[in-house]
Design goal:
Pfam families: Pkinase. This protein is of the alpha+beta class. It has 2 domains: 104 residues, Phosphorylase Kinase, domain 1, CATH 3.30.200.20; 163 residues, Transferase(Phosphotransferase), domain 1 (Orthogonal Bundle). It is built from 10 helices and 11 strands. β9 and β10 form a beta hairpin. The longest helix is centred in the last third of the chain and has 25 residues. Bound molecules: adenosine-5'-triphosphate.
Length: 324
């Protein structure tokens, strides 16, 4: 009975509800629910300075402690922002008992699938490079992200940057993956084990790129699954340029995120100081030009698109510069 009403507290904190932490006495006013997951519920709230924060409330003390430990660990990685910043950890006192919660940076952003929708292959490549850079740092710290999927990623800020949320699946290297989602899990596709190693996350990166092109996802079926992926990749104009890299990640041929990242950067043709025009960009431009020629559009439109492509290319170069 008591645990039912505690559960109601966790799930149903309404707008305006004031949380005063038992230990630190910080005050947070609930704005709205952001969503619920396997371990708890996340709320958007305002802190005492009217700054927006995200608060995760959960009945499972162990789950909260484990996520807090991961966030604390990630915040110690010097010069790198991995995961949302941890702001506070406390208990919410109710008449039915205490409920643990933690407060983190609120990441306001767009889902990667929505963000890249209708954009060129270079955007997909750029976010994959950013994500691989973060994974490289995470793996170096001895962790594997585990439950890597678009729901746990957001595109935030300006310049645009991929950020991850929900570190609940983060697992120590060598252990068994704690949490996974079938489509992004190589074990589900019989293409590897659920041992926490970098190649587990790299498989998921490839699947995230594929998911951006196939938002409805697709089912496992009898037969050679590598052939299924190859076919799906080759049927998509946006994924085609990445085919050999994606297949290497799917087959588990990369042992480090850095290897996959360098090959992507090379493919995009733009090393940090690179001047060469990206083959992906070239390919995108070429197909745009062919289309335009065949449609015999007025020349000012062609100029407009060329200038636009050039601006996008410069922006991407700038973003690479920011990452280094
Ligand atoms: N720091 C944050 N900033 C903004 N939104 C967040 C933040 N953390 C979580 N969210 C959002 O809150 C919702 C719930 O997140 P949570 O991590 O609890 O569960 P989940 O990812 O849906 O599920 P599961 O934990 O089962 O994978 C998600 O929609 C997520 O996008």
């Amino acid at each position: 009975m008591k645990s039912n009403s505690l559960k109601n507290h966790v799930d149903r904190l309404s707008a305006g509800y004031l949380i005063i932490g038992k230990w630190h006495k910080h005050r947070y006013t609930i704005v709205r629910k952001l969503g619920s997951g396997a371990t708890g519920t996340v709320y958007l709230a305002e802190d005492g300075l009217s700054q927006l924060v995200a608060i995760k409330v959960a009945l499972d003390n162990m789950a909260i402690t484990s996520e807090v430990n991961v966030l604390k660990h990630l915040s110690k990685v010097e010069g790198k922002i991995l995961g949302p910043e941890l702001i506070d950890v406390d208990d919410l006192v109710t008449s039915d008992g205490n409920i643990p919660f933690y407060v983190m940076e609120y990441l306001k952003g767009t889902s990667i699938i929505d963000y890249v929708n209708g954009k060129g292959a270079e955007w997909l490549g750029l976010f994959a490079v950013q994500l691989l850079g973060d994974l490289e740092n995470l793996h170096r710290e001895g962790w594997v992200f585990g439950d890597l999927k678009p729901d746990n990623l957001l595109i935030v800020g300006s310049p645009k940057r991929i950020r991850w949320i929900d570190v609940g699946g983060t697992t120590l290297l060598g252990r068994s993956i704690k949490e996974f989602t079938e489509f992004f899990d190589r074990g589900y596709w019989n293409l590897g084990s659920r041992k926490a190693e970098p190649s587990y996350d790299l498989f998921a990166v490839a699947m995230i790129m594929i998911n951006c092109e196939y938002p409805e996802r697709f089912e496992k079926r009898a037969g050679n699954l590598e052939d299924l992926f190859q076919k799906k990749i080759m049927e998509s104009q946006r994924l085609q340029p990445f085919c050999s890299i994606l297949m290497k990640a799917i087959r588990g041929n990369y042992t480090r995120a850095g290897e996959m990242k360098s090959e992507l950067i090379q493919l995009l043709g733009d090393s940090p100081k690179g001047k060469k025009k990206s083959s992906v960009v070239k390919q995108t431009n070429k197909s745009r030009k062919v289309k335009k020629r065949s449609q015999k559009k007025p020349s000012f439109l062609i100029e407009f698109f060329l200038i636009l492509s050039l601006l996008i290319l410069c922006y991407i170069l700038y973003l690479f510069g920011q990452m280094m």
